Protein: Adenylate kinase
Organism: Streptomyces caeni
Amino acid sequence: MRIVLIGPPGAGKGTQARILTERLSVPAVSSGDLLRAEIREGTVLGQLAKQHTDAGELVPDEVTTTMVTRRLGEPDAVGGFLLDGFPRTVRQAALLEESLAEGETTLDAVLAFDMPDDEIVQRLTGRRICPGCGTTVHVVFSPPRVPGRCDACGNELTRRADDTEETVLRRLAVYAEQTVPLLRWYADRGLLLRVDAMGTVPEISDRVCAALALTTP
């Protein structure tokens, strides 16, 4: 299956992508991971992208799309893939559609994860990370035994710079402006499947399977 995952920050797309990857035996493709790899390896695309990021500008849609579609042409993605974090705009979606059409393929579904903004703010602002072992906890939903300390290694827990309320609200505003119109674009093509992202990971996974008409494990 060829699936796009769309949703606001903190809605659990990454977790469900990992579950679906194992379930469907297809690769999960993240545009952010591809971009960082191209820059790190110093490729032509990476150098072009770095010029924009160093200047504080968005990487052009054409550059990002080229990175993604080239990855989708690799052998492990021939039978299907999950796209997480791409496309983010209608322009990117149109470029992706054109590229897939050249290879005589199309998307099978677009999963949209729905979650109220206030829940997202609570989830992200309460997240804490251990810089030592990478353990992630939440001050409300999964608090450590000793406040401010990692249960696994005892290091002091920290908060990511982009998990402040101001930053989260700004990211939500960008999502509403740039990505929400994409949901209508895919709905018009009969591809959009909406999933309630509230609840436990297994509950959400069951809803994803039901939306895709997959039997639950």
Summary: The two ends are 17 Å apart (CA to CA). The CA atoms of residues 37 and 47 lie 11 Å apart.
